[in-house]
Amino acid sequence: MPLISITTPRGFRFLPTVFSHGWSELPPFSWDDDTRALSRIHRLNDGTVTRLSITGSADDTAVHVDIAGAGYWLNDAQVGEIRRVVARCLGFDQDLTPFYALARETQGYQWVERVGAGRMLISPTVWEDLAKTLLTTNTTWAQTKGMVARLVELGDTDTAGDPTFPTPEQVAALSPEALTAQTRAGYRGAYLHALALAIAENRLDPERWRDHSVSSDEVYRQLRAIKGFGDYAAGAMMRLLGRFDRLGLDSVCRTMFRTRINNGEPATDKEIAAYYEPFGSWRGLAVWMDVMRSYVEG
DNA sequence: TTCCAGGGGTAGA
DNA sequence: TCTACCCATGGA
């Protein structure tokens, strides 16, 4: 099985990135506790469906990618594509230096740099992150996993029968009713179908949001214009786009704030916003670091 | 049976 | 800007 090694950026930590939020539990990602590998079923541009199994080196200076399903020999284009996909999913292009400088000077946040947290696991396409984020709204995490598992049944499969994430075209090919029935997404089904159709018909180009020449205010405005994306979903997407000036508060964040920061007292969103104000354009990441810490510490 | 989950759309003020 | 009400789904 072909193996590729990729040098990681300085300060990169594999495990905090993999477990930065719930995405490692959602197909076509999966985590194997025994091999400590993050796997992903991925369709290459030439149509080859592969299973990428990513592990971190002991000192975190590299990640190793085992590639199954592409034959023994990979051509240069395939290798280059896999390198780009892995680098993107693990947030290699994210420069956290300013955030770490801020966290270092803020009481209670020194741990962030120490453990190397802050990189968010993302998908190879903004479309996939949009679809998954939509399926986290107004539902439980268990149901999100179920909906995503049924959604990926629409994707291509590798030789083992495991599916890739479906393209917007594959999702839009179903009627809204059939998509809702397939995913059991309830009222979200129609929103998901409309989103897939808008991308498939080139009326919406979410990849453009990764371009930092587009202002964050403009990206947020476009996110909020998508049906099904309110302040939570749009704010969560901003984090996955490497833009941290929105809070993206949800019930998890509010519970964390109440129990860990506000002495058990409920706080309004305005009060939460005031607390994170010192983090400026990094406030959305600061909120999420507190959520991460609350998960780790129980 | 009712409540609610990593909320959001819409109408009406 | 704020509130009331509705929205499918499934586990507790």
Please outline what is shown here.
The protein has 298 residues and is an alpha+beta fold. Helices cover 44% and strands 10% of the residues. The protein has helices at 14-18, 76-89, 97-104, 110-115, 126-134, 141-151, 168-172, 176-183, 188-200, 216-224, 231-240, 251-261, 269-276, 283-297, and strands at 3-7, 29-32, 37-43, 49-56, 62-68.
Task: Explain how this protein is built.
By secondary structure, this protein is of the alpha+beta class. Helices cover 44% and strands 10% of the residues. It has helices at residues 14-18, 76-89, 97-104, 110-115, 126-134, 141-151, 168-172, 176-183, 188-200, 216-224, 231-240, 251-261, 269-276, 283-297, and strands spanning 3-7, 29-32, 37-43, 49-56, 62-68. Strands 1-5-4-3-2 form a five-stranded antiparallel β-sheet. A hairpin with a 5-residue loop joins strand 3 (37-43) and strand 4 (49-56). The radius of gyration is 19 Å and the shape is globular. The structure holds a DNA duplex (13 and 12 nucleotides).
Layout of helices and strands, plus pairs?
Blueprint: E1 3-7, H1 14-18, E2 29-32, E3 37-43, E4 49-56, E5 62-68, H2 76-89, H3 97-104, H4 110-115, H5 126-134, H6 141-151, H7 168-172, H8 176-183, H9 188-200, H10 216-224, H11 231-240, H12 251-261, H13 269-276, H14 283-297
Antiparallel strand pairs: 1-5, 2-3, 3-4, 4-5
Helix pairs in contact: 5-11, 8-9, 10-11, 12-14
The protein binds a DNA duplex (13 and 12 nucleotides) through α6, α9, α11 and α12.
